[in-house]
Design a protein that fits this description.
2 domains, alpha+beta
């Protein structure tokens, strides 16, 4: 914690005012589009290994926006990493950079990890978010008994 920057009251005030302005603009856009909710990715891939978090942690931006502005969001598993999809050679892109290599490393052995969608509702509409999550779950009908539960 010692390396965290300390902000002045004036800096915090500026941030909070900018945040409030952005929240208002986001709410207005949401209302203009007449959205009940959004179904979107959680992450561009399955969960990554802890040791890869320095390189891949920034992918959390898929969820950060809704956390920042206080919109309720939840996740619904829709499939899982299948055999063959967990091989480092299963993923390639035109960049072939540190992120590509780290994704390939993290994918090794990921067979069976859940792949999900994020469901988001307007601020203060937590019940709507849960209802939308149930609708997605009912439509997808994804079900998996974890390997550890089969031992009992």
């Amino acid at each position: 914690m010692g390396s965290m920057k300390k902000f002045t009251k004036a800096e915090v005030d500026v941030f909070l005012r900018r945040k409030a302005k952005f929240e208002g603009q986001f709410k207005e856009m949401w209302q203009d589009l007449k959205l009940d909710g959004i179904i979107c990715p959680i992450f561009p891939h399955a969960a990554f290994r802890h040791e890869d978090s320095d390189e891949l942690g920034f992918f959390a931006y898929y969820t950060m926006l809704f956390n920042l502005i206080g919109y309720p969001a939840g996740t619904v598993p829709v499939t899982e990493v299948l055999a063959g999809e967990d091989l480092p050679t299963a993923y390639a892109d035109a960049h072939n950079d540190i992120y590509t290599r780290t994704l390939q490393h993290s994918m090794a052995g990921s067979r069976g990890l859940p792949i999900g969608l994020q469901v988001v509702a307007p601020k203060w509409k937590d019940e709507s978010c849960l209802a939308l999550m149930q609708i997605v779950s009912d439509l997808v009908k994804f079900s998996k008994i974890p390997d550890c539960a089969k031992l009992n």
